[in-house]
Amino acid sequence: LMDEPTSALDPISTLKIEDLIQQLKKDYTIIIVTHNMQQASRISDKTAFFLTGEICEFGDTVDVFTNPKDQRTEDYISGRFG
């Protein structure tokens, strides 16, 4: 479980951590909690969007980010709220 694993890092250090996560996920299940949508779209295979403790949407990251089924997910990803 990683909570905002690169929140206080510079871009070079962030890239190194993301590369490490890519390697680790080959052998381990990793759960990342983040508000960084760009990072989530880069490094995750599956995405869950939570709002006020409820799972609004869960699926393949590509699908959630490019074709969300729930309007609340679309609103958050597009920056309409949050």
Automatic annotation (TrEMBL):
<keyword id="KW-0547">Nucleotide-binding</keyword>
<keyword id="KW-0592">Phosphate transport</keyword>
<keyword id="KW-0067">ATP-binding</keyword>
<keyword id="KW-0813">Transport</keyword>
<protein>
    <submittedName>
        <fullName>Phosphate ABC transporter ATP-binding protein</fullName>
    </submittedName>
</protein>
<dbReference type="InterPro" id="IPR027417">
    <property type="entry name" value="P-loop_NTPase"/>
</dbReference>
<dbReference type="GO" id="GO:0005524">
    <property type="term" value="F:ATP binding"/>
</dbReference>
<dbReference type="GO" id="GO:0006817">
    <property type="term" value="P:phosphate ion transport"/>
</dbReference>
